[in-house]
Amino acid sequence: MSEGDLDHIEQLEAKYPDVPRFVLLKLALRYRGVRLLAPATLAISDADYNYGPVQVFRYHDEEALKKAHPGPLLFRDGTTGLVAFEDREVFEDPYVIDHEGGKFLLYSDASKARLVDEVDFTPRPAYYGKRTSSGKPMESIATARAQRMIICAYRHCHFWDTGEQCKYCAFFTDLNETRQVSEKKFPKDVEAEDIYETVREILKEPGRVSEIYMTAGADYEGEPAFEAEVDRYINILQAIGRNFKGRFSSQLMAPAYSKAQYKKLYERTGLTTVCPNIEVWDERLFKWICPGKERFVGRAKWIQNTVDAVEVFGKGNVYTQVIGGVELAKPHGFKTEDEALASNFEACEFYSKHGVVFVSVVFGPARSSVFHDQKRPSLEYFVRLIRGLRQIREKHGLKADNDDYKHCGNHADADLERVD
Questions:
Q1: Does the residue 28 lie in any domain?
Q2: Do 231 and 193 touch, CB atoms closer than 8 A?
Q3: Which residues contact 260 (CB under 8 A, 6 or more apart)?
Q4: Hey, is 319 helix, strand or coil?
Q5: Which of 111, 138, 170, 344 fits 368 for a cystine, CB–CB 3.0-4.6 Å?
Q6: Is 335 inside a domain boundary?
């Protein structure tokens, strides 16, 4: 499969000349996954590369916590990509990365029969290894991507309490009976002062971060729903804001709040963008795949709240995303790739007309998620998806610069805007 897969990338490159090879490779690596060979594992254990085991949307069993993990992959053109490692997701035939002659080399498969390219990993931020005044390791407060600092303020999703979690999700989970990480490993709440100090520290490293990104597990407590969560974010964003004068480059990925709640966030903090992810557009599939979101918000209200957020934050400052491929999950998903694409393009067209930036990620079968054994569509499906989304956004004068190749590394359709 590996030789054919690489040839297929070359065929896709010929068929879709507007999609750069590195974007195709980024998709393929996320699609097929990556295995680190022993020399590469040893090399990333070095302090310059090792980011540690904490990952927001991955499981954290004892073995995973013992391993060194690198940051985003770095391609030769400067593109970054989030690597899907086989110890946390399920892949049949992953690429492999070896370390030879001081270089990280990407091969088509474990036989190393074909060298694909030389790659690297994003250097570890300087704040890793340091502690807050309360003694917390700063890398446990905030992880980093290419130029994005990611803060998870609440490490428990209450949708899991009743088995209504999104079926593709593995938010802070273990592979145990409850599939929840114990609070002993990772306390649910992160103190605002620890976050303030960690942000202050990363700002000492020039050019290392250009955006503060916040997320957390869903907490629907309060009246109206999610009011406690909104107040938690306000408290933390105000603490972060002590490091800045006025507004600061930031994004909040959270449920689709009411307009009044968005106004509170905007007026009381320096937050600049929000991202209430729809994840799957089709009404029937949304109810099946995201039952917690359906119960506590509802698809129609989720969509309306997202559109209303544009009135607060402005056109192009509200984002949403689809988990590309999840809409084909069996047994209830679309039967054909064309049907799935049509649904996603309909969503992008709707949101774009209302000033919302619609992007995609590649569905990964996380080991501790309900969908751990689902199959995904073809690689070409994702190429067609990212091309179509980018074309629709361009028609409506929208740019996905919040999720471009420098900030996140997880949105190949945003990377396509580099050729504009």
A1: yes
A2: no
A3: none
A4: strand
A5: 170
A6: no
Rounded-to-integer distance, Cα 63 and Cα 87, Å: 9
Q: Which of 323, 370, 368, 363 minimizes the C-alpha distance to 58?
A: 368
Rounded distance, CA 418 to CA 188, Å? 38
DSSP 158: G
Asked, for residue 242, whether it belongs to a domain, the answer is: no
Q: Residue 91 belongs to what domain range? A: 19-121
Task: Write out pLDDT tens, residues 347-382.
Answer: 999 999 999 999 999 998 888 889 989 999 999 999
Concatenated DSSP letters of 244-294: SSS--SEEEE-----HHHHHHHHHHS---EEE---B--SHHHHHHH-HHHH
C-alpha torsion sign, points 378, 379, 385, 391: negative
**Average pLDDT over every residue of 62-69:** 64
Among the listed residues 201, 73, 184, the one whose alpha carbon sits nearest the alpha carbon of residue 142: 201
Residue 369 in any domain: the answer is no
Q: Which H or E run includes 106? A: strand 103-107
| Residue-wise pLDDT tens digits, 152-206 | 888 889 998 899 999 999 887 665 555 665 555 667 788 999 999 999 999 999 9
Confidence of residue 1 (pLDDT cuts 50, 70, 90): very low
Predicted TM-score (pTM) of the model is 0.92
